[in-house]
Amino acid sequence: MSAWLHRLAVVLLVLVATGCSGDTSPEPDPTPSPTATTSASVSPTAAAVPRPVKDGCHRMTLEQAVAPVIGGTDIACSRKHTSQTYKIGRLSLLESGHLVAVDSPSVQSAVASSCTSLLGAHVGGTREDLRLSMVQAVWFTPSVEEAAAGADWFRCDVVALGRPGRLAPLPRSSKGLVGSSDAFAMCATASPDAVSHRRVPCSAQHTWVAVASVDLTGKAYPSASAAGDQMGSPCRAAARGRAADPLDFTWSEERPTKDQWDAGQRYGICWAPA
């Protein structure tokens, strides 16, 4: 998968989670560009952007958050902001002794892996807490021209999905965001099979809540029936465990879309009425 296709797959995960697109509609904002396999020639006017500041806060839109290069406005964390940096790393642009471009698949994959693997330690909580939250990692690298001019960093930010198509404002510090509060837990405006289903933070008005995740086995994308066979029992148990009457309750199962599966989400979500 090319760096841009990988990026679009992650974008799609974000947009499906907020309910502002269909199951297979890609993010319309970025225009895919060719993937370079060797370093770009240095432009005589290229200037490396300053190395970002760890723990810096930023005001940005959803479209800016899922773009490959930095956008938005740096802002004091005491003011309203929608992302916060939790990691500044150094890019490795050498493969087998050869220089590769910053937008090559291997470089982008390494950045994505670093940022997603470090998110849990920053926001706290368990893996399940993070899966059942609206909190996600986004990451940025220099442009090809900036990297050719010497920029060698990548930046990991934490964001929280809010209303469909929008990022939610973050607290002054995002450290422990998931482990210390359920304000950004995942809820919905309706059951997953309803046309009006939209994921929202549990701090917003909602009627359903995500109660469990279920790992799905197998290498191929599961059919609805196959996913239901794996998810039925654990989803039923999770719903029963929170019901006032253990003999009278309901639940719903939501398997990942094909795009989410291809982008790496190998689990489904169990839902129950709030």
From TrEMBL:
Keywords: Signal. PROSITE patterns: PROKAR_LIPOPROTEIN (PS51257). It holds the Pfam family Septum_form. Residues 75-268 form the Septum formation-related domain. It comes from the Bacteria. Residues 22-50 are annotated as: Disordered. Residues 34-50 have a biased composition (Low complexity). InterPro entries: Septum_form. Residues 1-22 form the signal peptide. This is Septum formation-related domain-containing protein. It comes from Nocardioides currus.
